[in-house]
Amino acid sequence: MNACIRRLADPTETEIAQLSAVLIDCVEGGASVSFMLPLSAEKSLTFWRRVAADVRRGTRILLVAEDARGIAGTVQVALEMPENQLHRGDLAKMLVHRRLRNQGVGAALLRAAEDAAREAGLSLLVLDTVTGGEGERLYQRLGWCRVGEIPDFALWPGGGFCSTTYYYRKLA
Q: What is the mean pLDDT of residues 72-87?
C-alpha cells in the first residue's frame, strides 16, 4: 500500500477540498454513495463541511488515506446514536480514489476504522453497501457478517436502482 492512514480531528479547508475531490471521483466512477451525477464541487464541499462540523463536535470519526498527491481515501464512523445504542456506530462513506484502488487502501481504512471504534468504546459496527460491489467483497474478506439485501434501495449516480446489503462487525 502506498498510502498512510490518519485521523482528522479538525479538518482544514484544504483537507475538505481534497475529500471533496475524492467524493466527486468516486461518484463519477459510478459509486452509489448518496449523490447523483453531476455532483458539483459546491454540493460536495457542503457535504464535507457538515462532516467536519460533526467531527469537531465529537459525533463522528473521520479517517483518511494519503499518498504523495494528498488525500485519496476516507471512511467515517458515526457515533451519534440513540441512548439505547451507544455501544454501536455506523461505518459510512468508505471512499477510495480510483488512482489507489486495488492497492490495499480500503482494507487499511476499514481496519483503522474498526480500531478507532474500539478506542471510542464501541462494540458493534454496522454498514450498508451496494450489493455485489467492490465494497461488499472487501467486507466479506475482512470478516464482516452479512445480514441481508434490500432490493431497489438506492439509485446509481446516473440513475437506475441498485440493491443494498447490510453488514455488521462485533468488535473484540
A: 98
Burial class (CB in 10 A: 0-12, 13-18, 19+), 156: middle
Beta partners for residue 66, in sequence order: 4, 71
Taking every pair of Cα atoms in the chain, the longest distance, rounded to a whole number of angstroms, is 42
pLDDT exceeds cutoff 90 at 74: yes
pTM over 0.70: yes
Residue entry with cell 447523483: 36
Amino acid at 6: R
How far apart (Å, rounded) are the C-alpha atoms in residues 105 and 133? Answer: 16
Q: How many CB atoms lie within 10 A of CB 134?
A: 15
In this structure, are residues 157 and 35 in contact, taking their beta carbons and an 8 Å threshold? yes
DSSP-derived 3-state class of residue 28:
helix
